[in-house]
Design goal:
CATH superfamily: Lipid/polyisoprenoid-binding, YceI-like
Order of helices and strands: HEEEEHEEEEE
Largest sheet: 8 strands, antiparallel, barrel
Number of helices: 2
Pfam family, one: YceI
CATH topology: Lipocalin
Organism: Flavobacterium gawalongense
Number of domains: 1
Structural class: alpha+beta
Distance between the termini: 37 Å
Protein name: YceI family protein
Number of strands: 9
Strand content: over 45%
Keywords: Signal
Strand order of the largest sheet: 1-2-3-5-6-7-8-9
Radius of gyration: 19 Å
InterPro entries: Lipid/polyisoprenoid-bd_YceI, TTHA0802/YceI-like_sf
Shape: elongated
CATH architecture: Beta Barrel
CATH class: Mainly Beta
Length: 184
Amino acid sequence: MKPKLFFAALAALSITSMFSQDIFTTSNAKVSFYSKTPIQDIDGTSNKVATVLNNTTKQVYFKIQNTTFQFREKLMQEHFNENYMESDKFPVSDFNGKILEDIDFAKNGNHKVTIVGVLNIHGKKKEYKIAGTLSSNENGLVLTSDFKIKLADHGVEIPTVVFTKIAEQLEIKITANYKPYKKV
């Protein structure tokens, strides 16, 4: 067998074996949100988001501890956790959904996906239909998505005193770099 053909066959075999995996995970996905108003822009980011993607069932699950969001200013973080998210009462936000498209994970490339699922924030659940991109390559899977949510849909109240500082709608960005799940 010629060396080039051998390495091509080896690469194809390793990609096929990786994507024969059913479960992909990461515990350091990135979720960020952005609120733009004429008075103040607010953005928070967490790089400690746990997520699982099931290649067979197309189920996707995200879980985040609300206190892991970091802000430019410490006071913003305090207000976020104490006044809006009430993180002591609602410590976790999560999303449980399913990819609608039938994707061959073994094919390298970018795949447009639609995920339908329930987002639970502040103890209030709402169904969303979210567009995203699922990229697959020899290193794993990367899921990215940008979408918007309304705070009122999740029972997050904005006091009228600060209403002009926080937008009613937040822009959410997600990036998850999945690797095949390995049992420990």
